[in-house]
Design goal:
Mean pLDDT: 96
Strand content: 5-15%
Helix content: 40-55%
Bound molecules: ligand 26Q
Low-confidence stretches: none
Shape: globular
Radius of gyration: 27 Å
Length: 800
């Protein structure tokens, strides 16, 4: 049906009638979307079946990537592209007077993640399939993904997201493969000789898998993303049926909207065990179908846990191996630790997961018993190694002070612990997890993050893709490191000119969106200066805001002050319970109001906040950016991945020496990036010696004093208390993230950016150099590193 555009048109029209019971004229856009989606799904299914059969028959090692989040983004366009049928479809539709883009926009954006960690998982799936690697995702089918953000009067309001409202063409429900999960109850110990454990009076929940195909780029491999849905298992005679139903279904109702600040909610713990237990049961079942010997599990199965959220994979695998497979503790431990590997995504102490025993033990009695045993054996080992060093042992224990420490569990129970950028992995080894590094030096390693260039370049920026193809051919798509071939051409006037046109076109597209949504007219010739990411104090959107306030003041005070016009674009969701973050959103809006309505200032600068930042919006933003703001306090951003998406689309980075910014600088060279601010060792030193005094910066720098005073003196012509909490964070609470300390150097670097932009030719060269070096940050490279260095898996050649 996709072999030619005429064939396609014919099938499409036929299918439209049979699926929607409507003629072509009556059919809505959504009807068209459903029709096309179904055709594509059918096209995928034979490859999917073939892949699964091959995995069964070849019986090679497979990896299972467990993640509480998969931030997929829309799938129709990506699947068409990966299958190599986008052009046929696009042209066929065109002849029917239908725009593919319009159809694509009918798809809801599956937002089963908060930000970086969830999006990384989605990029990894794309790379695994494309590299023909046998790797599958396991996650949760949240009924409601991350909330939709509405801005009302400058304040964030959260609305429930409803991605399943019109169904999901990409999923297949597999009720035959459902498994049962036990919560609550108690454990009866019995048996003679060898102990046995029976979980009684438990509450059972049914986990039903929904499988989604993961299509590799122009290969026949189709891997699986398995998302679990919670349903009632069976209704007992004396049960309160309604409340049981409500309680079970609640487990997969909502994604927790919390990015990095901890919320110890029992439902979240239930979600975690639900994911882990259903996934492990299903993995073991399918392993046992092909393999008689459970002792060899680790030779055929790798289980990766994306942060500590699925860390209960360690005790759960122990439980299955001992209680169900009858293995000894020693054998089970050998297999478990050789199967599980773990990625850490954060160094913020407050984000490290800890669960109170009083929540944990009653909900998961057997799992708790096993963790206690792991802890006792681990502490005994430590005692042998460090006799008498109670403090050290208590500090490293998995259970201490009434808390279960998930990171400690993950480290002890896995064979590999990796950070997500060089500096982050070094900080883990030398500071945050130093004591564990001393015990298990060989477990620690780095895997610098990456992004899939197929979504963030081929799909998001077809204009730049064509330009690259015209310049260096198409080899780079399969081998992204070959983007470096562009480097020979960056000084060619023709390439520069064409790149400039591509950027301009993409800025026009974004400008139109901004005009439609925000009612703000922005200048295409201004610098598009963008900061899009979750709102968090450590990411320092506030530093960006204070700089804009400073510019406003200068432009007001000095009519001769002339700078390159700039459009400051923000996009960010704040966790609904994060008071400070929500205040920053309000502040951005108040500032926009002030700046954009000033007849003179607004000719030079504008401020735009784009509502409901999400994957689909991101695909319009990255290609249009000139400047990428990556200004976290050094040492706090584990890696960042937006930085890579900007770079790949030819934006220049303004950044601190943090996370992967450092590796970006190493790649492009110091001349092609704008770095500023404290370094990580300087920040860590301040934190140790406590010598930072933000008040001194307030008193000694007039520019700082002016902008901070404006937060509380009615400058924004609102309630004077509105931004007091922000001013307090900077002065009364001594500015935890060193905003004032880095303020002056940020102003300097931003001034340099403005000047650099005016040398048009040079700027274009620098942008192209960034594109040329972005191949290193393809998730294909990252996944190959995981496959070789951690999972020990090889490609399986699916050929239809
Ligand atoms: C924890 C407890 C309760 C509820 C929610 C959570 C929770 C949820 C999501 C904690 C953390 C997250 C997400 C973290 C995250 O996205 N980290 C980012 O991971 C990226 C991929 O490695 C990095 O690039 C970023 O630097 C890092 O911040």
């Amino acid at each position: 049906m996709f072999s030619s555009k005429d064939r396609f048109k014919e099938s499409f029209l036929k299918r439209l009638e049979s699926m929607c019971g409507k003629g072509f004229e009556e059919a809505t856009k959504r009807d068209q979307y459903h029709t096309l989606g179904n055709m594509v799904r059918e096209y995928i299914s034979s490859k999917w079946i073939e892949t699964n059969e091959l995995y069964r028959s070849e019986n090679k090692k497979q990896v299972y990537y467990l993640s509480i989040e998969f931030l997929l983004g829309r799938l129709l366009g990506q699947n068409l592209l990966n299958l190599g049928i986008k052009e046929v479809v696009e042209e066929g539709l065109k002849e029917l007077n239908i725009s593919l883009k319009d159809i694509e926009e009918c798809e809801s954006d599956p937002a089963l993640g908060n930000g970086g960690l969830g999006r990384l998982a989605a990029c990894f799936l794309d790379s695994l399939a494309t590299l023909n690697l046998p790797g599958h995702g396991y996650g949760i089918r949240y009924k409601h993904g991350l909330f939709d953000q509405k801005i009302v009067d400058g304040y964030q309001v959260e609305l429930p997201e409803q991605w399943l409202r019109h169904g999901n063409v990409w999923e297949v429900r597999k009720p035959d493969e459902a498994v049962e999960i036990s919560f609550w109850g108690r454990i009866e110990t019995g048996g003679e000789g060898s102990l046995s454990f029976k979980h009684v009076q438990d509450q059972k929940v049914l986990a039903v898998p929904y499988d989604m195909p993961v299509v590799g780029y122009r290969v026949d491999t189709v891997n699986t993303l398995r998302l679990w849905n919670a349903e009632p298992a069976s209704f007992g005679p004396n049960q309160d049926v309604l409340s049981y139903k409500r309680e079970t279904e609640a487990i997969t109702d909502f994604l927790y909207p919390d990015d990095t600040h901890d919320e110890g909610k029992i439902l979240r713990l239930k979600q975690q065990y639900f994911l882990v237990s259903s996934s492990l049961q299903s993995i073991i079942k399918s392993y046992k179908k092909e393999n008689a010997n459970i002792q060899e599990l680790h030779q055929y199965v790798a289980i990766h846990i994306n942060d500590t959220h699925p860390a209960m994979a360690v005790p759960e695998l122990m439980r299955i191996l001992m209680d169900q497979e009858g293995l000894s503790w020693e054998d089970a431990w050998h297999i478990t630790t050789n199967t599980v590997s773990y990625t850490n995504h954060t160094i913020l102490a407050e984000a490290l997961e800890k669960w109170p025993i009083y929540l944990f033990k009653p909900l998961l009695p057997r799992i708790f018993m096993i963790i206690e045993e792991i802890n006792e054996r681990f502490c005994a080992e430590l005692w042998d190694r460090y006799p008498g060093e109670w403090n050290r042992i208590e500090h490293m224990a998995i259970i201490a002070h009434g808390l279960v420490k998930m990171a400690h569990l993950a480290i002890v129970g896995s064979n590999s612990i990796n950070g997500v950028a060089k500096i982050h992995s070094d900080i883990l080894k030398n500071r945050e997890m130093k004591s564990f590094y001393e015990v298990y030096p060989s477990k620690f390693n780095n895997k610098t993050n990456g992004i899939t260039h197929r979504r963030w370049l081929l799909k998001a920026n077809p204009e730049l893709t064509s330009l690259i193809n015209d310049t260096i051919g198409e080899d780079w798509i399969r081998h992204p490191e070959k983007l470096i071939d562009l480097k020979r051409h960056v000084y060619h006037p023709e390439l520069k000119e064409r790149f400039s046109q591509v950027k301009r076109k993409r800025k026009e597209i974004l400008a139109k969106k901004i005009a439609d949504k925000n009612g703000i007219q922005v200048d295409i010739d201004s610098i598009f200066d963008v900061q899009v990411k979750r709102l968090h104090a450590y990411k320092r959107q506030l530093l960006n805001v204070l700089h804009i306030m400073y510019l406003y003041n200068r432009l007001k005070e000095d009519t001769n002050y002339s700078i390159q016009p700039r459009t400051f674009i923000f996009g960010a969701k704040a966790s609904p319970t994060y008071y400070y973050a929500k205040k920053i959103i309000k502040l951005i809006h108040s500032l926009a109001e002030k700046v954009n309505n000033d007849p003179r200032v607004s000719q030079t600068i504008k401020v735009v906040f784009m509502e409901n930042y999400r994957v689909s919006l991101a695909e319009d933003i990255f290609p249009a950016a000139d400047v990428s703001q990556q200004i976290s306090t050094a040492s706090k951003e584990a890696s960042g991945t937006g930085n890579m998406k900007f770079m790949m689309n030819g934006a220049l980075t303004v950044g601190t020496l943090d996370g992967a910014n450092i590796e970006i600088m190493e790649e492009v060279g110091e001349d092609n990036i704008f770095t500023f601010g404290l370094t990580a060792p300087e920040v860590l030193k301040y934190e140790e010696n406590g010598r930072y005094r933000s008040m001194e910066y307030y008193h000694h720098d007039l520019r700082i004093r002016q902008v901070i005073d404006q937060l509380t003196n009615g400058f924004f012509s609102e309630d004077e208390g509105e931004f007091e909490a922000i001013a307090d964070s900077l002065l009364v609470q001594n500015d935890q993230y060193f905003v004032l300390r880095d303020f002056a150097s940020y102003i300097d670097i931003q001034e340099k950016v403005g000047i650099a932009y005016q040398d048009r030719g040079k700027w274009l060269e620098q942008a192209l150099i960034n594109v040329a070096h972005s191949g290193l940050f393809s998730s294909d490279r990252t996944i190959q590193n995981y496959a070789d260095g951690i999972w020990n898996i090889d490609p399986v050649g699916v050929k239809m």
